[in-house]
Amino acid sequence: MDFFSILSENRIKKAYKDGEFDNLPGYGKPLPFDDLSSVPENLRMAYRIMKNAGFTDEENQMKKEMLTIEDLIKQCEDQEEKKALQKKLNEKMIRFNSMMSKRRQNTNSSLFKNYEEKINNKLF
């Protein structure tokens, strides 16, 4: 052990003996269940940090779905199917933006979408 580990261990032991941990919220109660059993052990801390920072699986799944729909739109040649895909993409974007606004995060996705459309129009 290095000096800082020994020092921190000693301070924790002293605080425990002095009763500084006795009045903490949730003292004596089991920890809340956080199911990360399907995540490999070496990645659990990263998942927990991301979850605490507000990133969720639902958000990532929504982004993947939007990217997939965008790719389908680019490959689609049938105008009716393209309109249906665009409508589906718009619905996903509205749901994603509302989910992000509930967390008080700004997405600016419409600005990037308009910029991407302008670039695509110039390229094609």
Beta-strand proportion? under 5%
The secondary-structure element order is: HHHHH
Query: Which stretches are poorly predicted, pLDDT < 50 over at least 5 residues?
Result: none
Mean pLDDT across residues: 81
The tally of helices reads: 5
Gross morphology is elongated
Largest sheet: none
Radius of gyration: 24 Å
Number of strands: 0
Helix content: 55-70%
Class of secondary structure makeup: mainly alpha
Distance between the termini: 62 Å
Description:
The chain is an all-alpha fold. It has five helices and no strands. The chain has helices at residues 3-17, 44-52, 57-75, 79-102, 109-123. α3 packs antiparallel against α4 (79-102).
Spell out the key features of this protein.
single chain; 124 residues; mainly alpha; 5 helices; 66% helix; 0% strand
Layout of SSEs?
Layout: H1 3-17, H2 44-52, H3 57-75, H4 79-102, H5 109-123
Helix pairs in contact: 3-4
Short description:
With 124 residues, the chain is mainly alpha-helical.
